Amino acid sequence: MIDLDLPGATISRHVYGHFAEHLGRCVYGGFWVGEDSPLPHVRGIRSDVVAALRALQVPNLRWPGGCFADDYHWRDGIGPRDQRPRMVNSHWGDVVEDNAFGTHEFMDLCEMLGADPYVSGNIGSGSVAEMSDWVEYLTRADESPMAALRRANGRDEPWRVPFWGLGNEAWGCGGNLRAEQFASLARQYATYSRNHGGNALYRIAAGANESDLHWTETLMRSFDDLAADPAEPARPFQAVSLHYYTMSGSWGDKGDATGFSTDEWYTTMARAHRIEELLTRHSTVMDRYDPHRKVGLVVDEWGTWWNVEKGTNPGFLYQQNTLRDALVASVHLDAFHRHAERVVMANIAQTVNVLQAMILTDPDTGALVLTPTYHVFAMNTGHHDAAALAVHLRGVETRTVDGTELPLVSASASVKGDTALVSLSNLDADSDRTVVLDLRGRDVVGHEARVLTAPALDAHNTPGRLDAVAPTAHDGVRPHPRGLEIDLPAHAYVTVRLGLR
């Protein structure tokens, strides 16, 4: 049941954000092919990758990491490329890179995509002065030292950089800090990450891993008084992050991306569904200190993490992307929609050739492959900046998985003007379903549906079969006395766009 006339919180388009780390072939061989590449490019940035991502209306892009961010010193990535020092990427493959893709190249990419940059600053091995200088270099317009350096490197006008990360996974690769240590550092670094001119930073402190509520509570206690004045913004930073990855096995043996069993399918779906619990628990802790909900929750790493594909560098985290990954994405996005009052941004990991990627590029043929996950994001653009609608599910079957109950249908909805979008996932590996949409409050004057599914649970796209998993028009929609009746094929994702008056 959906009350079309009772809009809730706005679903920020930024929950459809992306992540590009210096990891494997995400940046080098994904976005960046270099100015000598035979592949079509603009200033070394691959043109078909940009075009595909522009079609998704990518709202923001996080860079340079990830774990890499706390080893990255931004001055090594500016100036003439042939004079930039090399560095060892010790986290991801222990490879040497030449810093050909640095600050100017990233900002150029963001401008091509029409995406807001989300820059992750180095707290782990950097300094307060280094981070402060980077903000000044990017965003200051006058004759300050860093603005002058930027001009000397070819960029006259400052960039707009709305999102600024204060470290990454400070509990692990970002310094192995305790929560109390990091909370003090986050306040210090936030203070010196200054607003210059009209550029107001939205500072995001590195937050918890999965269910670490102590980390979230420690950060919330470190804010200035959040309860006093609803009109006063949160200080000294404005958001905290959360990381959660989905797998069917353990960290040591995460499960394979293809060739998995039906039991592994359900384990994966149950673990994806756990994001609902995590958002609820972390939000509850935040509500205790922040009753006006000034502080944003940013899920800036999420997605599936499988064993790497055989024959690839284990440090490059290259994995295939199947229909299962697409439904993991839909389950997460439904949860983000339901928590729109608190979840202000999210970044799937990662955009190209790494983990749950939107795009895979073939290193031998140069072919570009759009993944099933890409298609879920494309089918959901109507949710961007729309008002969430509560979806009341009745009579949904569940399946017991590892002692927990997994609902076999996931759903969310939103409205913007005279259009509503309803997203429906059938997580049942074998059985089709029929769902009645009890639509109330406004008249429905038209509908259009699309479906994403395939015969096999591990169906995926390849250079030889680009559309093995691709959305098609869905004719399984019929009028019903309460609204509409929708056929949901087994293991399928369906969106229904409603015309309203």
From TrEMBL:
Alpha-L-arabinofuranosidase C-terminal domain: residues covered: 300-492
Pfam families: Alpha-L-AF_C, ASD1_dom
InterPro entries cross-referenced by the UniProt entry: Alpha-L-AF_C, ASD1_cat, GH, Glyco_hydro_b
Enzyme class: hydrolase
SUBUNIT field: Homohexamer; trimer of dimers.
Family annotation (PANTHER family): ALPHA-L-ARABINOFURANOSIDASE C-RELATED, INTRACELLULAR EXO-ALPHA-L-ARABINOFURANOSIDASE 2
Lineage top rank: taxon: Bacteria
Family as reported in the entry's similarity comment: Belongs to the glycosyl hydrolase 51 family.
Protein name in the entry: non-reducing end alpha-L-arabinofuranosidase
Gene3D superfamilies (UniProt xref): Glycosidases, Golgi alpha-mannosidase II
Signal peptide: none
Catalytic activity, EC: 3.2.1.55
Keyword terms: Carbohydrate metabolism, Glycosidase, Hydrolase
Catalysed reactions, semicolon-separated: Hydrolysis of terminal non-reducing alpha-L-arabinofuranoside residues in alpha-L-arabinosides
